[in-house]
């Protein structure tokens, strides 16, 4: 124990390096497992040193909390379906935000500790970021899990409400800073919690992937705030890494969806439209439909096939059947690739993880920028469970809520096959002209059942 305390700073430094290696590993499917291991090792070192340095820790309570958290986390990790990963991540962010709020409140109520000017600022910032993160993450969880409506909260009163809450939060925070009045700190905390709701509720469900990324950044900054409150260097470093990486990812996501980052941060009020249509109505138009056998025949006789997977694939857990079908096509000499939109699924990287779970070869998986120019030379595109990411309205219809959002150019392929349960609108509530093109054939049904039928037909 003495040696650990003596070299605490060095061990913290090693933990920080391991956290950086974690981010590097998680940046690619091949390095994800190693990245997770670096993270676990780094966190283990950080917890060990923190326990050794703590002046009078209650080991019983700490161990009980850690065991309870480990059991709950292990159970959730083993049982959560891939389709529920986005809302699970959102809920985890809410826990980080709540922790920041509780630690800040405990610190301001600690009568034995005098807070300096800088520490009062740290407490204020850490608490209000934590409060916003907590409520915003709960709302994001509700929208992603369909517990709350995906449609945005609208009305001329929403923006004034946001401004009043923000000013109230800053005002009472300033009053606490000047007077150390605990009542003001509690009121400031209340304002931040309510503001979190009003920042996310006006954002539509179609923009939730960006919101999840942004909340990841918020949770990192909240953790960094906790680090300042506890005077823990490694927590400051880890929180800053998560916060900054989440901010960079949010920027990339906004760019991919043609969204303004300020629009997301300020609750949809800084320009740009929500991705959710006002009514979600679908106008009846003629379209062509076929069977799984028809689809298998067309792809079995093609030279090149590009598969566009979407959330519907994850819902039906069709990735394994799809991998089997793609392998059968490859064995027949068909070139098969997967095209991944940056916001495919419900969160960044969702579809990559799904395909990795089915052991799809990495070389067959290509990002939007890599494959978009090849669609015009592709014989058949199989769109399975996806909708908004292949909607040509994003390029052609200036009145569309998703106009300007980069899409996969599936409509440029020679033939398009769309596997879908019905002609209902997608997650963004928009009809899709791709479904009514002469080159498009709709195959209706559960994605897994359709793909399994295609496998049988191809055999």
From TrEMBL:
It is a multi-pass membrane protein. The chain crosses the membrane at residues 7-26, 89-109, 121-141, 161-178, 185-204, 224-252. Keywords: Cell inner membrane, Cell membrane, Membrane, NAD, NADP, Translocase, Transmembrane, Transmembrane helix. Pfam families: PNTB. The keyword Ribosomal protein does not apply. It is found in: Cell inner membrane. It catalyses: NAD(+) + NADPH + H(+)(in) = NADH + NADP(+) + H(+)(out). Residues 10-456 form the NADP transhydrogenase beta-like domain. GO terms for molecular function: NADP binding; proton-translocating NAD(P)+ transhydrogenase activity. The keyword Cell membrane applies. InterPro entries: DHS-like_NAD/FAD-binding_dom (IPR029035), NADH_DH_b (IPR012136), PNTB-like (IPR034300). It comes from the Bacteria. One of its GO terms (cellular component) is plasma membrane. Its EC number is 7.1.1.1. Belongs to the PNT beta subunit family. The transhydrogenation between NADH and NADP is coupled to respiration and ATP hydrolysis and functions as a proton pump across the membrane. This is NAD(P) transhydrogenase subunit beta. It comes from Chitinimonas arctica.
């Amino acid at each position: 124990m003495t040696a650990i305390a003596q070299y605490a700073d060095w061990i913290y430094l090693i933990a920080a390096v391991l956290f950086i290696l974690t981010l590097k590993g998680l940046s690619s499917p091949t390095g994800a497992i190693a990245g997770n291991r670096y993270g676990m090792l780094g966190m283990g070192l950080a917890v060990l040193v923190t326990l050794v340095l703590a002046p009078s820790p209650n080991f019983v309570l700490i161990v009980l909390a850690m065991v309870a958290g480990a059991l709950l986390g292990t159970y959730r990790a083993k049982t959560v379906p891939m389709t529920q990963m986005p809302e699970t991540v959102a809920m985890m962010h809410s826990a980080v935000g709540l922790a920041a709020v509780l630690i800040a409140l405990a610190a301001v109520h600690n009568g034995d500790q005098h807070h300096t000017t800088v520490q009062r600022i740290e407490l204020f910032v850490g608490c209000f970021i934590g409060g916003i993160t907590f409520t915003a993450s709960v709302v994001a969880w509700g929208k992603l899990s369909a517990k709350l409506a995906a449609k945005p909260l609208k009305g001329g009163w929403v923006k004034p409400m946001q401004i009043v809450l923000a000013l109230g939060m800053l005002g009472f925070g300033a009053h606490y800073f000047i007077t150390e009045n605990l009542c003001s700190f509690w009121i400031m905390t209340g304002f931040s919690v309510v503001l979190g709701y009003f920042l996310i509720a006006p954002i539509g469900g179609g923009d939730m992937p960006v919101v999840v990324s942004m909340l990841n950044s918020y949770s990192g900054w909240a953790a960094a705030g906790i680090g300042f409150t506890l005077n823990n260097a490694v927590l400051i470093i880890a929180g800053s890494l998560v916060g900054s990486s989440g901010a960079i990812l949010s920027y990339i996501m906004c760019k991919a969806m043609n969204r303004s980052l300020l629009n997301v941060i300020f609750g949809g009020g800084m320009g740009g439209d929500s991705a959710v249509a006002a009514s979600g109505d679908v106008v009846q138009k003629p379209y062509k439909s076929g069977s799984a056998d028809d689809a298998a025949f067309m792809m079995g006789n093609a030279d090149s096939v590009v598969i566009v997977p979407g959330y519907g694939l994850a819902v039906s857990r069709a990735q394994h059947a799809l991998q089997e079908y793609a392998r059968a096509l490859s064995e027949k000499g068909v070139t098969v690739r997967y095209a991944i939109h940056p916001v495919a699924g419900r969160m960044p990287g969702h579809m990559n993880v799904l395909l990795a779970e089915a052991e799809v070869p990495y070389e067959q998986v290509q990002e939007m920028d890599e494959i978009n120019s090849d669609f015009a030379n592709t014989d058949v595109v199989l769109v399975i469970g996806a909708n908004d990411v292949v909607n040509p309205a994003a390029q052609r219809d200036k009145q569309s809520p998703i106009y300007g959002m980069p899409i996969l150019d599936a409509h440029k392929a020679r033939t398009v096959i769309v596997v879908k349960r019905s002609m209902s609108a997608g997650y963004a509530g928009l009809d899709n002209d791709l479904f009514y093109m002469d080159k498009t054939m709709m195959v209706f049904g559960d994605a897994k059942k359709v793909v399994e039928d295609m496998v049988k037909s191809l055999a």
